[in-house]
Automatic annotation (TrEMBL):
Alphabetized SUPFAM superfamilies for the sequence: Periplasmic binding protein-like II (SSF53850)
Record's signal peptide: 1-27
Keywords, alphabetical: Signal
Originating species: Undibacterium parvum
Keyword Signal: yes
PANTHER family from the UniProt entry: PHOSPHONATES-BINDING PERIPLASMIC PROTEIN (PTHR35841)
Superkingdom assignment: Bacteria
Protein's UniProt keywords contain Signal: yes
Protein name as annotated: Phosphate/phosphite/phosphonate ABC transporter substrate-binding protein
Length: 279
């Protein structure tokens, strides 16, 4: 990040630091949950170094909380368990309505849902998938499942759905023939190994939306929110910080708010396609 770009975050960092240093009542350890688009081993290896850097820069420890499936992540989020979370766009809507969570940072690149088939399959468009089985990571994975299923229904495509827990499972189920097609998003597809990606073909895409945000529970003090937000925004200033952000698919973080980026998702009319797993 050019120096003149970094300078605009200095007042926010200074203010957050002053408020934190003057407020001994604030806790210095908070939890952060991450939506499990990947397995927990991969998520830990990607996120823990970033959280260590944020702790070094702010004095605030964000303890990583990982779940084995997206539905388990959702249950905790809707109960208000994590202080912070990295969640999909519609999770931001659900969490705002359930607990008052607010988005603070997201990546500048739009999120796009994609529907994939094997490269050598006969399927050319979504109408070819009528009556077929389609795999999705989880019911409420926004671009990969929730929005995608709503658009398929809008196009009067009838299909069997199978939920496979992670994006990686979707890719591999397409390749081994367990499902005819599968839903994912541009970020996870681009992040997949070339030997997997090169065997897949995109036949449909959703309109783009604001990407996964970092959201925060309203119980977290404003000074802590400001410090964490400023830390994310300042990280691209050096190569090491940028590398950490790239690992978690947040290479170009920018400030966000609910009204400008996520309120519009309430108007898509996709809430009837949400499914919440019972405990």
């Amino acid at each position: 990040m050019p120096l003149h770009h970094f300078k605009k975050y200095l007042p926010l960092l200074a203010l957050a630091g002053t408020l934190l240093s003057n407020s001994s009542v604030f806790a210095t350890t908070y939890s952060i949950a991450v939506v499990p688009q990947y397995n927990v081993v991969q998520l830990h290896s990607e996120w823990q170094p970033l959280l260590d850097r944020i702790a070094r820069d702010t004095g605030i420890t964000l303890e990583l909380s990982l779940q084995s499936s997206i539905p388990k992540f959702e249950r905790g989020l809707l109960k208000g368990e994590p202080d912070f979370a990295y969640a999909n766009p519609y999770h931001a809507v659900m969490a705002k309505n359930a607990q008052g969570y607010l988005p603070i940072v997201r990546d500048s690149k739009a999120l796009t849902g994609i529907l994939l088939v094997r490269k050598d399959s006969p399927y050319k468009n979504i109408s070819d998938l009528s009556g077929k089985e389609i795999g999705f990571p989880a019911p409420n994975a926004f671009g990969a499942s929730l929005y995608m299923r709503a658009l398929l229904a809008e196009n009067k495509i009838k299909f069997e759905q199978r939920f496979l827990n992670t994006h990686g499972n979707v890719f591999r189920s397409i390749l081994n023939g367990s499902v005819a097609a599968g839903g994912a998003v541009n970020n996870t597809y681009n992040d997949e190994k070339p030997e997997i990606r090169d065997q897949l073909r995109i036949i449909y895409q959703t309109p783009g939306s604001a990407s996964h945000p970092v959201i925060v529970h309203p119980r977290v003090p404003e000074a802590v929110r400001a410090a964490v937000k400023a830390a994310f925004l300042a990280l691209p200033k050096d190569p090491a910080g940028l590398a950490l952000l790239k690992e978690v698919r947040l290479p170009q973080p920018l400030a966000t708010n609910y009204e400008s980026d996520y309120l519009q998702l309430e108007k898509l009319g996709i809430e009837k396609f949400t499914l919440l797993e019972k405990e």
